[in-house]
Design the sequence.
């Protein structure tokens, strides 16, 4: 039997329950199958690997925190959040850990930063040996829809701590002096309990600063905020989120020990997100590549929106839930949403055959003709004809001329 040695290693790793070795061996088998030209089988293995990764991430395992790291009373569900005295509005919302859904999907470097932070909480003694403590303040920044809020929720869930979320714009009051008092009340509340404090939409402060009428007030607010951030350092964990990192006061920026930039997902993350958002439809690997090709440069939230629209379109089209069905649905969704920065998306929106010609000619995508057939429904000889026709070229030129 071909590849028996690898299959044997897979079985061995599976029997002893060594996940890491198992994944490595499955990867080895996938590479061998690819080399042998058995791309469909190789793609199936890759899908199984991605699905396994996804289910592992579904149940975020709590990190075991060293005792004494987070002080404070236990926050019970019945506790009322503080309110703005003038308006009676709540200054924060409270989320309790558990049932908080799946892990966000990020590029490797982001994933490693988040896991590294969580790892600090389990290795307190190693950190102490070199005279440092785990990171207690994190600033997450990046474009809208890049998963900042879901990442903050995920971190709190992994730490097993309730999350107190303040929206800065909710704290800002039109009454002189009230904003600073609201901020102080919020921090007092958060410091009393073992929790993660999340300051979402942090840039609202920066917006205030642009208003010349508000100069005195904003100075007071920023000072209160800085003092409270400093005080909180020794008590609990704080995460702040902003879309506009450049607008933030440098003194505020410096208060955060780690800054995490979330951008658009890379290719691997994109495929995992697409597979996730297309569920319960099980898309073949070739379809994930085609979707990912068209959605390069989009944020996680954009990808979710497109996948949801594709599922709606497919459900009503009566087409089968396979590669070609998804391909046609993607094409019509893209056609309905103009202004694509992404050239492949623009071509697929305009002309499906030109798109097939594009992917058949794009060496960087390295999709074989059989895979193109699986993803688009075009037969091999038609794919081959379209490849020769190069009918995508005028559209590519037109795209660049715009
Ligand atoms: N990296 C990601 N992993 C998983 N899901 C994501 C990711 N990025 C975005 N999403 C999806 O997009 C939705 C919006 O994400 P989220 O609210 O975290 O974005 P955000 O960066 O906080 O955006 P905003 O700046 O508009 O508040 C989420 O509910 C999630 O379904
Ligand atoms: Mg958000």
Sequence:
């Amino acid at each position: 039997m071909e590849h028996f040695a690898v299959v044997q290693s897979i079985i061995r790793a599976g029997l002893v329950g060594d996940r890491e070795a198992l994944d490595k061996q499955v990867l080895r088998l996938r590479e061998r199958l690819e080399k042998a030209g058995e791309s469909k089988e190789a793609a199936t293995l890759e899908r199984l690997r991605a699905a396994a990764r996804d289910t592992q991430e579904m149940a975020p395992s709590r990190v075991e925190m060293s005792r004494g790291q987070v002080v404070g009373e236990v926050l019970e569900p019945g506790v009322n959040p503080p309110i703005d005295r003038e308006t009676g509005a709540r200054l924060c919302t409270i989320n309790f850990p558990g049932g908080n859904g799946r892990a966000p999907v990020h590029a490797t470097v982001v994933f490693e930063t988040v896991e590294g932070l969580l790892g600090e909480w389990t290795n307190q003694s190693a950190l102490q040996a070199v005279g440092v403590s785990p990171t207690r303040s994190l600033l997450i920044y990046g474009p809208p829809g890049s998963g900042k809020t879901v990442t903050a929720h995920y971190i709190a869930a992994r730490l097993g701590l309730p999350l107190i979320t303040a929206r800065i714009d909710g704290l800002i009051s039109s009454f002189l002096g009230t904003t600073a008092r609201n901020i102080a009340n919020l921090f007092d509340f958060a410091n009393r309990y073992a929790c993660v404090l999340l300051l979402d939409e942090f840039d609202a402060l920066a917006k205030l600063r642009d208003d010349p009428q508000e100069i005195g007030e904003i100075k007071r607010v920023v000072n209160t905020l800085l003092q409270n951030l400093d005080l909180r350092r020794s008590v609990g964990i704080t995460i702040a989120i902003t879309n506009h990192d450049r607008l933030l006061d440098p003194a505020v920026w410096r208060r955060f020990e780690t800054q995490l930039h979330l951008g658009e997902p890379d290719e691997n993350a994109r495929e995992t997100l697409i597979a996730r958002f297309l569920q319960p439809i099980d898309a073949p690997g070739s379809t994930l590549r085609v979707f990912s090709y068209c959605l390069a440069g989009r944020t996680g939230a954009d990808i979710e929106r497109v996948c949801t629209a594709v599922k709606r379109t497919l459900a009503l089209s009566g087409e089968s839930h396979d590669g070609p069905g998804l391909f046609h649905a993607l094409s019509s969704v893209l056609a309905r949403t103009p202004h694509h920065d992404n050239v492949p998306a623009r071509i697929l929106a305009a002309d499906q055959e030109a798109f097939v010609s594009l992917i058949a000619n794009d060496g960087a995508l390295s999709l074989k003709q059989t895979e193109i057939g699986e993803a688009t429904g075009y037969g091999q000889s038609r794919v081959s004809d379209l490849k020769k026709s190069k009918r995508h070229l005028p559209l590519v030129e037109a795209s660049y001329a715009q």
Residues 104-106, 144-150, 243, 273, 300-301, 304 surround adenosine-5'-triphosphate (ligand 1) (CB under 6 Å).
